Amino acid sequence: MRFERLPKILFLQLNRFEYDYISDCRKKLYDRFTFPKILNLNNFLKDYEIIKQNYTSEKLKELERRDAIENDEGRF
Predict the structure, then answer these.
(1) Hey, which residues does 3 pair with through a beta bridge?
(2) Domain count of the chain?
(3) CA atoms of 69 and 57, how far apart (whole Å)
(4) What is the torsional sign of CA 48, 51, 53, 58?
(5) Cα–Cα distance, 16 to 52 (Å, whole number)
């Protein structure tokens, strides 16, 4: 899946069940799942491969820092 652009707020729904073939039913997963404080989804952008080819690693790091600052400023 690729995004044209990312929304300001993204809701993710995780499938927290697995099928148990022995009991022939679904079982709830209680494993802990954590996300980093800043979630980088650039790899899921449609044009990210083009951006990656046209920018140096230093420029990409600067863009990521700028995005992180903008995200922090936009918090409620």
Answers:
(1) 45
(2) 1
(3) 18
(4) negative
(5) 34
DSSP states along 18-30: EEETTTTEEEE--
Structural domain contains residue 64? yes
Residue 32: both structure tokens together: 């802990």
Question: pTM higher than 0.90 for the full model?
Answer: no
φ, ψ (nearest 5 deg) of residue 18: -140, 155
- Chain centroid, CA 69 distance in Å: 17
Is 58 part of any domain?
A: yes
Q: What's the domain range around 34?
A: 17-73
Confidence of residue 75 (pLDDT cuts 50, 70, 90): very low
Question: Is position 47 within any domain?
Answer: yes
Q: What is the mean pLDDT of residues 22-36?
A: 89
The 10s digit of each residue's pLDDT in 34-70 is 878 877 787 777 776 666 666 667 777 777 777 776 6
